[in-house]
Amino acid sequence: MDRxxxxxxxxxxxxxxxxxxxxxxxxxxxDLVLGLDTRAAAADDDxxxxxxxxxxxxxxxxxxxxxxxxxxxxxxERIAQTCLKHEGVLEVEVCVHKPDAPITVPFDDVxxxxxxxxx
Length: 119
Fold this sequence. Notes:
- By secondary structure, this protein is of the alpha+beta class.
- The chain is built from 4 helices and 4 strands.
- The protein has a 4-stranded antiparallel beta sheet with strand order 1-2-3-4.
- Helix 3 (53-65) runs antiparallel to helix 4.
- The chain is elongated, with a radius of gyration of 15 Å.
């Protein structure tokens, strides 16, 4: 399976279990790895035979900016299902970063990574 990766998609969302997170929002960063077969697109040099990663990026940002959820696990699932709606995408790995998570000790990042497929 071939891979198309998008790294560092940034969007502001209001996800979290605490009122402050819901009210103020915070930046979420998303990394994606889309699994698909790119041979037909490469052979014909045809965008319609692969995934349009610009459209995927816009949809993922819209998902992050959309309806708030408590857990980034739920947000990751929402993003995965958005990606799998694209006909050629057979598998997706989604990593949601929450660098401003409400943790009381020093840290660099909090992430949740999931893999989903059509199978």
